[in-house]
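Complex record, two chains
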Amino acid sequence: MTTAGAGARPLAPAASALGGGSGGGGGSSGATGTPSARETRRRRRRHRSTEAAWAAFFLAPTALGLGVFYLWPVLQTFYYSFTTWGPFGGHTFTGLANYRALLHDPDLRSAFVNTLWYCLLGLAGIPIALVLAAVLARPGRRGVGFYRALLFLPVVTMPVAVAIVWRWLYAGDYGLINTLLGKIGIHGPYWISDQHTALIAVAVVGLWSGVGYTMVILMAGLESIPRQYYEAAQIDGAGPVRQFFALTLPLLSPSLFFVTVLSVIGTLQTFDLVYVLIGQTNPALPQTRSVVYLFYQDAFVDNNRGYAAAIAFVLLLVTVALTGFQFRLQKRWVHYA
Amino acid sequence: MGIRTVVAASAVLALAASTTACSSSASSSSGGGKVSLSYGVWDATQVPAMQKIIAAFEAQNPTITVTIQQTPWADYWTKLQAAASGGSAPDVFWMNGPNFQLYASNNVLEPLTDVHPDTSVYPPALAKLYQYKGVQYGLPKDFDTVGLWYNKAIFDAAGVAYPTAAWTWADFQAAAKKLTDPGKGVYGVGANLEGQENFYDTIYQAGGYVISPDGKKSGYADPASIAGLKFWTDLVAAKESPSLKQMTDTAPLNLFESGKLAMYWGGSWDAKAFAANDTTKTGVDVAPLPAGVKKATIIHGLANVVFAHTSHPAQAEKFAAFLGSQQAAQIEADTGTVIPAYNGTQQSWVKAYPQYHLQSFLDQLPDAVPYPISKDTAAWNTLETTELTKAWDGSEPVDKAAADLATQMDAALAKEGS
């Protein structure tokens, strides 16, 4: 819709300028010229309104889906966060009671700290993806499609399947990782049940399964930078390092900004990896429990749906705030060529 | 990524459930057609026995067909609760002790007093478990007690005599010490952080209690209860059991099945799985639990219940009555899945696996203690896991963890109301 509107608008002044030009040929013809210009304008306007109608028509299915499956639940969740639920439905309005309880919930505080760690560790995936993208996007490299598919595979694999396989890899006594470490004389920890390693273990799996997606976006960004710039820089005597910082990074910044925003929103919603990798009786659960996990536990295990709705809403606010902050920050470092 | 996958999956399940509900009501409205019922269960190993019972029921009732809806244990209650809230729960389904009062008190279950008036055919503790305010809502299906499973080869190699009914805690602790062999990665026992099979039994053996008989007060602050918990944490501290971390990685049941545990406190329901596993097929046997201050084993059993909002109450009740009959119990006993609740059919179950001394489970019946429950059992079950984890991994002394648990559990019980 925005592209259609932007395309149509510059046409209108051009058309009226043309109309005015033809009308200005003779003094008397001015009277006849103006109505014809008005007529054109009216036709344009009618054309534009039918265009808008068509746009609305084509957008309706998506808008409807968005409204029914996203916006309406958000409003409902907002309302439910002020209620207390029975185990089999039915709720009573209890005002700010849930939010007041949230303030004093030590579990929520630790869950937020854990989630922010997932968020920070998730961002570490971006430089890794950038290196992978840069290596794969080098001109003349063979088998790019193969490697790209290989690295993208975890993205399209079911998170639960990913977590189950990693559970085996991480197993303390019989896992592949500790077996290999044992060969070089290192006694590895119980990765996912040790309070010190569990959070990093979960984050690494998240990073591994997300890096392919980031890489593909960055590769597309790299390929859209014109080669001439690099040739010009070379002639000016810039080395590869200087080229990277003076050319690649600024020109790639819109893509980097995009993946940063996505990564932050995605990692704030960490749930399935914790649910499958850690499980409910794991001694490291307090050190790995994310906000969405806490939401799940309150909503579906402990039957506190109203309280869970309040948790979900606070997470939404935090997500909006962090994303808004990034959009403010982007003015300083993102260059749109 | 994220919870959306889970929500989407449950939405699909709910959709599937509602379509089956639609199809069943459609078939009944067509007049002389068949009525189809759904039967919700969680244990996959019992599905073949359930199929046989259904076949026998359908033979007697040609106008009714029954389909099994099996949901793995991990998701059973979450899904059932969502389905019950939405009015699309299975017509008949399995119920357990910890969840029963929650469902009965919220009018999700159909009273079955008229369906099967004579409950004296079941062990009285079980029939009573499924009464709420004097009304029978569930018909006992089976029961289980806990026994001491042991690996004969590990006992032989260490030169330790097999456990007997005369064993005390001291005998057990001495054996666990002798049987532990760090070089081979073999432990005396798995101190699972599990109520029914582990610490509930020892709490009652030590003379303590989990919850007061009126269901209003926690028993975790009682010194005897703490002694029951210490039984296990001492084994972990002495490395005669794998650490909690190890048991999180590999469940004690799997360790026992692969010959890494000399002893395993397990239920009568384990017999079927053990008989199908190479190591445990003939290599293990079972004895009664050792006695502490007194003898005790937790008894628990499932019941079949009818969904209050089923579209076919008459047919569903008929099926529930059949499930509670001697004929159904006999089929269950012959397939050897679990101990049937119907008195007089239990001996067939004992004979189903002659290689194990399954009589041990029945011999303990006079000392059996009912599974501790209240109206919202799940609330304090979560607390048990959270607080006792600290005692198990040694980050807190047992008495402190138990005292904290008692305080929080009392608060949770106070919230239940009457």
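Note: The first helix of chain A runs from residue 2 to 23.
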